[in-house]
Every structure is written in structure tokens, then in C-alpha cells.
Design a protein that fits this description.
It is a single chain. By secondary structure, the chain is an alpha+beta fold. It has two domains: about 25-60 and about 95-185, no CATH class; about 225-430, Histidine kinase-like ATPase, C-terminal domain (Heat Shock Protein 90, 2-Layer Sandwich), CATH 3.30.565.10. About 60% of the residues lie in helices and about 10% in strands. It has helices at about 1-20, 30-55, 95-105, 115-135, 140-160, 160-180, 180-185, 190-260, 265-295, 315-320, 340-360, 400-410; strands spanning about 60, 65, 85, 90, 325-335, 365-370, 375-385, 415-420, 425-430. Strands 5-6-7-9-8 form a five-stranded mixed beta sheet. α2 runs antiparallel to α5, α4 (about 115-135) runs antiparallel to α5 and α4 (about 115-135) runs parallel beside α6 (about 160-180).
Amino acid sequence: MGGTFGAELVERWQKAVASLRQRSPLPRPSRWMWTADVIVAVVLAACTVAAAHSRSRDVPLPPMVVPIPPEVPVPGAETSAPFVRVETVQHLAAVQPWQLALAALTALPLTVRRRYPLSAFWAVICASLLFNQRLGGGDATVYTFLSCVVAAYSAAVYSPYRARALVSLPAGASVLALLHDENFPSVTPGLWPFLALLGVGLAANAVHTWKQRVRVLQEEHEAATRLAVHRERSRIARELHDVVTHNVSVMVIQAGAARKVMDAAPDRARDALLAVEAGGRTAMAELRHAMGLLTMTPEEEPALAPQPGLGQLAALADRVRETGVPVELTVTGTPAPLSAGADLAAYRVVQEALTNAVRHAVGAKVRIAVDHLPDAVHIEVSDTGGTPAARVAPGGGRGLTGLRERLAVYGGTLQAAARVTGGFRVTAVIPVGVEEPA
């Protein structure tokens, strides 16, 4: 019991630490947010500059001691006169430019407090420390303190780096607390209601901001889920298209040939029907594999038959030859290992090209050339041209489009165009060594 409870605590602690390390970006600030931040920064900077200007014009000098002679001198007495302590005030004619610039820098970084909250926080803290050490006191300290509060609030609420914010806020507060005489203003009893209302407003805004962040994260998660579902549906549709179209086309051609020679040559009709049966079995096996990928568990994976690849091109060419289409297969080079997905995509390229030749180029000769290079696999499937099979509607090009998308996942390319001498050519290039996408 105790061990289970301890394991749960450790797991929760690990999740909390992982959440602190994660980056949770906020939505981009709107135009109104930018305008509000600029107004706040300019107003605080103007107030700080005005307070610094007023402060610099009334700087007390060190006290002067002035002797006053006595009214009635006494003979023989010590000649001494009382001293009067006199305070004098120096009036400066102008404010130093660096003082005004430093005063403005205590608030101007707040213009980017939503976009770069941690950077704005430390910029305000450093500028306020320098300013208060050089020309602090009076109303200026009030405005610099407000700028630090706004910057700290922005870092806590808007920073996407939670761990950095948790470290930066206590560090900045500790530096200000160590030099509290220069950086903390004197609070009168009349300011307490204002401070209480300010705290309530900041807390309410923080809650609203966190709700907005949760809503945005939920929307992003839902959008990512919808995109993943759409991609999976597209992948399944392409796989089913490749499997069904090729095998059904071959079966239709074989069945038509069996019907034509059934009376004149029963043996040829029997061979054609056997080819139809073999094509049906192949289609069922590939469909079972495709559907099994959707419902299998990790324990069931070894029970599935391996997916076809370039190693099965000879068997694919033999099945097409049985339909009466002359197919020439040429393989050159040393085969390099491809990922399972890339190998299947290469097989589907040849399968789709052969299917199109069977359906739309009856009487044509087909040539398959596979060239294994050190860095890529080149595949070319071309036919000499022919006439479309009976009752075959023009294709919509979805098969080739799906193949382009599939090859693009592995960095490959696909080109399909008519040949000048007649017929059609499909060319694919698949890089070697590309890992399976996550």
C-alpha cells in the first residue's frame, strides 16, 4: 500500500517537473493588446520622467553653519559667537539627459511584456535598480515600483517558460527586497484600498488569461487530432485504392478472356479462371493486411504477413503477364535497405503503373527498370501505348496523386507523362536511408 502511494507521488512529481519544462505558447497578442501595452508603458515612463525632472530641480546641499556675533560684547570674555544651522537648496537649470533616458527605460520595456515577458521583466528590474540608486526617492520610486509589479505579473502570466519564470520572479523580488530603502515607496494608509483593488484586478485577469490559454491548447489539440484522422483516412484510402484497383483490374481482364475462349479453348479459359482465383486470393491477403493494421495490437503484429516490396516485383510481373501483357523487368545495381514504408511505396509505384497499362493500354508492351544507386532507387515503368480496355472509364489520376504524396513522405519524387514515341512513362526516385516518419 505504502509502496503504491509512494510510486504515485513520484509519478505526479515527474509529471509536474515535465510540465514545467514544457513550453506552452500563448496566442499572438491582438492589436488592442499591443495598443494597451504601449499606452501603459508610455504613461508610466512619462510619470517617471516627470518625477525625475522635479526631483533633480530640488536637491538639498549639505547644511552650512553660520556664526552670529553677540549683541553686547563683554570685556575680558571669550569672543565666541553662537552658530546657526542653515539649510540651503541648489536649483539646477537643466536635467541631465542620461537621467531622463534611464527614467524612461524603467517602463518602456513593458511594451513587449506579452511577447517577451521574461526579457521585459529583467529589463525593468535592472533599469529601476540603476535609476533608484542614482536618482530615486519621492514619486519616482512609486512609478518604478509599479513598473516592476506590472513586469512581474506579465512574467508570471504570459511567459511560456514556466521553470524560468519560477526562478526569475523570486530572484528579482529578492534583489529589490535587499535594497528596499531605495526601491520600495512609502505606503500611506490611503493607498491600501487602491492596492487591494489592484490585487483583485490582477488576480481576475490572471484567471481569465489562464482560461484563454487552456482554451487555445484544447483547440490546438482538437485541430491536431482532426489532422491526424484526416491523414490516416487518406493513407487508408490510398492503400485500399492500390490494392483493389490493381487486383480487380487484373481479375476483370482474366474473366473477360475466359469468357471469350470458353467454348473454343476450354483449357485457356480454365487457366484464366485460375488466374482470377489467384488474383482474388492475393487481393484478399493484402486487404486483410491493410485492415489488420487498423485493429491489431502489438501482440498480434508478428501474425501478419509481410507487406510487399521491391523483392516481390517478379511475382507482380508474372501475374500481369498472365493477362496477356508482355512485361520486361530489369533490375540493376546492388539493392540498398529501404524502410518498410519506402519499400512498399516503391512497390505501389510499379503496381499502379502496371494497372494503368492493363486498363488503358491493351496490346502495349511494358518495361520495368529498377536501378539501385548508392543514395537512391530509380524506378521507371513505360509502355508502348495501346487502346483502352472495354468498359473502362478514363481515370481521375487519384492513384498517381496518392503516390506522389506517399513518396513525398520519404523525400521521393514521382513524374508521369506521355512519351513522344507513344505510350506512357512513370518515373520515381526514392532516397536511401530515410527513416520511417513518426
